[in-house]
Every structure is written in C-alpha cells, then in structure tokens.
Amino acid sequence: MFVSVGPAAFTAAAMVNIAANAGRALPASFMGNGPLAGMIIRVVADWAALWLWGLAIWFFIVSVGAHVSCFGHGGPQFAMTWFSFIFPNTALATSTFAIGNAFDSIVIKIIGCVFCCLLIVVYLLVVGMMIRAIIKKQILWPQKGEDKCEGGFKCGQGECPNCSQEAKEKEALGLAV
Known about the structure:
Elements: H1 5-20, H2 22-25, H3 34-68, H4 87-102, H5 106-135, H6 161-173
C-alpha cells in the first residue's frame, strides 16, 4: 500500500526542483519579462508541490493505518514485499527536504531528517527479518515464500489456488495428478 506514496511525493520534489531553476531556464524576453515569469512559475509550482506533499503524507498515514492491524500477536510472516515499507517512502523524505528548501523552513527540514532516520531503522529491521527468514528457511527455499507453486514445485497442501487449479485442469484432461 505504500506504493501510493511514491508518485505524489516524487512529483512534488520534481516540481520544486524544476521551478527553482525556471528563472534561469527561461529567456529574458519570455512573456515580456522572463525573470518575473520564472518567479511566478516558482510560486505556483511550490504551492502545487505543497499540496502534492500533503497528499503523499495522507497516503502514508492511510498506509500505516492499513498495516497496523497486521502486526499484532505473532505478526505476519516475512515476505520480500516488506521492502515496499521503505523504498516508496524515500520519495516522501526527498519531497520533505524539497518542500523545506522551497519554503525555507527549518522545521520541515528537521522533520525530513527524523523521517530519514526512521527509514534507516525500518530498513535495518526489514533486512534483519529477511536474514532471519533465510536462516529459518522461510524464504529462498523450495516450496517456501511466495513461490510455493512456481518452478515445478507442488505445495501439496491444497491451499494454494494455483496448485488446486492445476490439479483440476489435469483431472479434467484425464491426466494423473
């Protein structure tokens, strides 16, 4: 679910950085006054980026809320998709710094630093859980992880919809299961 954070946040960061250079990129005669047009573009783009940054924060809050219930007693089993807890959120950190620079806000820059530190902690936790899952043979082992039915392996438990479907198709064709 964190994948929804990335597009809005990266777009916000890009808008701020492009708008910051609009004054230099536009010719002096652009719309009669190039430097003024560049300043107007910067103001409009910065405020639009602020809105997109807020949208990215909203998506982040919704995504955190959606995942809180999963981490109860025992928690979920590790899957490689846990890396999606980190990488889309780097966009939010990037846009936080861009917004902090655009509005010259030390508070937003500090929030960006705190967010980066939290991302590093979560990254280390995910890597630690990945190493733990490898040692416990929960991933990167035949018939374990996300690939229970791939590569010719059969989970044999009947719980896998792919294996069940494949067995039904072979049965319908009269082939041995």
